[in-house]
Amino acid sequence: METENRSFSPDQMMETLQLAAQIIMESGGETFRAEETVCRMGAGFGLQQVESFAVPSGLFISYRTADGRLETSVRRVHPRRTDLTKVNQVNGISRQAAAGRLSAEEALQQLKALDMLRKTPAGFGALGAAAVCAAGFCFLFRGNWPEALLAAAIAALVQGIRLFSERIHGHGIISNILGGLLTAFLPALAAGWIPELMTEAVVAGALMPLVPGVAMANAVQDSLRGDMFSGLSHGAQALLTACLIAGGALLSPPLLRLLKGGGL
Amino acid sequence: MISFSDVLRYLLGSFFGTIGFAWLTRVPKRAWLPSGIIAAVVYMIYWLLPQAGVSESMAVFLGSLFGSLAGHVCARRMHMINTVFLMSAIVPVVPGLGLYRMMAYLGQGQTALGADQGVRAMIIIAMTALGLVMGGFAERLIHRDGGSH
After folding, report:
1. Global pTM?
2. How much is the pLDDT for A1?
3. Which of A140, A159, A211, A230 is the mutation pick for testing B, counting most B CBs within 10 A?
C-alpha cells in the first residue's frame, strides 16, 4: 500500500487529509476526532511526523514527506448542517486507511464522493424528522394528541424556515430567533381558539428540535479530551443558540398583547 | 403514584422523540433503535428514581451516566462514533419544559419564579454533563487504547 501511495503527490496527500478533517468538522463532528483522523490516516499512508491542530473554525496540518520536506497547510472551516452519518463514514474511511486497507487515492475518491453528497440540500425528510421529534417530546411533557399534532406542525414549519434560510445563505441567528418566536407565539395564538390546549406541552415539544444537542455533546467530548478551547467554543455555541431561541420566545408575549390591542 | 399509562407515555415519548432528533441530525439509520432504547431507559431512570426518594439532580446524573456508558458500549460494538449515542442520552433529559417555564415567567415579569426555574434547569444541565463526563472517564479507564469511536 505504501508503494501505491508513493505515486501520490504531497499536495494530493494533503488534500486527502484536509478533506477528511473538513467533512468531520463541517458536519458537526468534534475537533479531537478531526485531529485524530488526520494523524491516523497520515500514519496509515506512511507519512512521518504527522501533526494536526484543529479549532472549531479551522485546521492546521503538517507532515514530513519521504524526501524530508515539511508540508504544512491551513484550512478555514465553515460549519454547515449537522450530518452524523457523514462523520461516521469518514471515521470508517480513516480506520480502513489507518489499517492499510485503503490507499490515499482510494480514500480521496471516497471522500470526494462523500463531499458531493454533503453539498446536496436537505429535503422534506428534515421536516418529517422535526415533526416526529416534537410530537414525541410533546407526549413526554404530558401533552395529548391535539397538542402533539400542533407541536409537530409548528416544528415542521420552523424547520422549513431554517432550511429556506440555509438555501438563501441567511444567517443562523435570524432563523433561531424566528424559530423561538414562532414556537412560543403560535401555540399561544391557538390557545385563544382552543381554551383547553396545554400550551406549555406544545411549546416545550416544538422547541426540542431546536435544541443544540450535537454542540452540547461535542462540548463535553472535547473538554473530556483536555481540549478546553474547543470544548468552551462548542459550549458557547450551544449557549448562544439556546439564548437566541429563548430571546425569540420572549418576544411572543408582547407580540400577543399587541395583537389583542394592548401595548408592548 | 406510578401508573401504566404514565410509563407507556414516557417510554414512547422519549423513544420516538429521540428517534426524531436522531433523524434530524442524520444519525446513521442502524443507530436509531439503540439510540431510542438508551433514551427511553435514561428517561425512566430520571423519572422513576425521584419516586423512590432520590433527588432530581442525582436522578439526572445517574440517568446520563447510564446513557454515557451504554452509548460507549454501543459505539464499540457497532463500530460507530460515540457522539450519536451520547446525544441520545442527553436529549430526553434536556429541561425543555423548565426552560420554557423560565422564559414564560420572565416574559410575564415574574423574575423570582423565572430565576427559580432557570436555576433548576441549569442544575439539570450541569448534572447531565457530569454524568456524561464520568461515563467517558470510566470508559477510558476500561479501554486504555484511546480509540475514538
Report:
1. 0.89
2. 52
3. A140
